[in-house]
Design goal:
Order of helices and strands: EHHHHHEHHEHEEHEHEEHHEHE
CATH superfamily of the largest domain: Malonyl-Coenzyme A Acyl Carrier Protein, domain 2
CATH topology of the largest domain: Malonyl-Coenzyme A Acyl Carrier Protein, domain 2
Strand content: 15-25%
Oligomer: single chain
CATH class of the largest domain: Alpha Beta
Shape: globular
Number of strands: 10
Largest sheet: 6 strands, mixed
Strand order of the largest sheet: 8-7-2-1-9-10
Number of domains: 2
CATH architecture of the largest domain: 3-Layer(aba) Sandwich
Number of helices: 13
Helix content: 40-55%
């Protein structure tokens, strides 16, 4: 049985995140101190003592989740032994760093640049996202393609759950059509922009050079990336997929299906929350899922 380690994305944050790591591990304390130095502000204070509102700022959210995940993987030591890894959106950077494709500093700097670039893109064109429950992927795709505004599938989260991204007008038009088509529920999300859509093109352009120049090494195991949902260990392919990820959908359902096909029998979520465990279970109820724990 192969073990897949998966890393969460934006939305998994919570006040107090990472404080248990800081309290229990000298390695964690050193890495949090290093992160504060790299970023030029005390992100650990915001993670440990900040409010929900503080943590919802994209420039804080993304590096906070990255740090929680990567530091936890480091503290696990030899117990972090993946046969394969994947990360949901932002989590892809955590997975790559934990698996040795990026060093800690380079990974954190890229994540922070990504967060700032995405925040800027959100301010250029007001936009949002919505979760669609109870429709086939093809139905959602067809309806989005017929809306005379920017609206596209952004996250294929699990069977029967697709998140769409677009302008406010596009999302409203799509919601009406999706409900007519029989969607069980359509829920507008409390996010600051249309992630993984053409509206993130300014962020893609801004980040392209930084990713192209990043010293990516072959990871210790295959990473199943969001855009192709296929495994890779090739640094040039990894870079291309990281750049494309900003404007293309997260194929999480397809990623989980491919990991299962390739022998994954246990999925361990590394980072805050347990959202990915629930998504994996909805793809295959028989598979074993759990959270990474710092105590045996």
């Amino acid at each position: 049985m192969k073990i897949a380690y998966v890393f969460p994305g934006q939305g998994a944050q919570y006040p107090g995140m990472g404080k248990d790591l800081f309290d229990q591990s000298e390695t964690a304390r050193s890495m949090f101190d290093e992160a504060n130095r790299i970023l030029g502000f005390s992100i650990s204070d915001i993670m440990f003592s900040g409010s929900d509102e503080d943590l919802r700022q994209t420039k804080v959210t993304q590096p906070s989740i990255f740090l929680h995940s990567v530091i936890l993987a480091k503290v696990l030591g030899n117990r972090f032994s993946p046969d394969m890894v994947a990360g949901h959106s932002l989590g892809e950077f955590s997975a790559l760093t934990a698996a040795g494709a990026l060093n800690f500093e380079d990974g954190l700097i890229l994540v922070y640049k990504r967060a700032l670039a995405m925040q800027k893109a959100c301010e250029i064109r007001p936009s949002t996202m919505a979760a669609v429950l109870g429709l086939e992927n093809e139905v959602v795709e067809k309806i989005c393609s017929k809306v005379d505004e920017i609206v596209v599938p952004a996250n294929y989260n699990t069977l029967g759950q697709v998140v769409i991204s677009g302008t406010f007008e596009g999302i409203d038009l799509a919601i009406s059509k999706l409900q007519e088509a029989g969607a069980r529920r359509v829920i507008k999300l409390q996010v600051g922009g249309a992630f993984h859509s053409p509206l993130m093109e300014p962020a893609r352009k801004e980040l392209e050079q930084a990713i192209a120049e990043a010293p990516v090494q072959p990871p210790r195991c295959s990473i199943y990336q969001n855009v192709p949902a296929q495994p890779s260990t090739d640094p040039s392919v990894i870079r291309q997929n990281l750049i494309a990820q900003l404007t293309h959908p997260v194929k999480w359902t397809q990623t989980v299906q491919n990991m299962l096909h390739d022998g994954a029998g246990r999925f361990i979520e590394v980072g805050p929350g347990n959202v990915l465990q629930g998504l994996v279970k909805k793809v295959d109820r028989s598979v074993e899922v759990m959270s990474a724990q710092i105590t045996p």
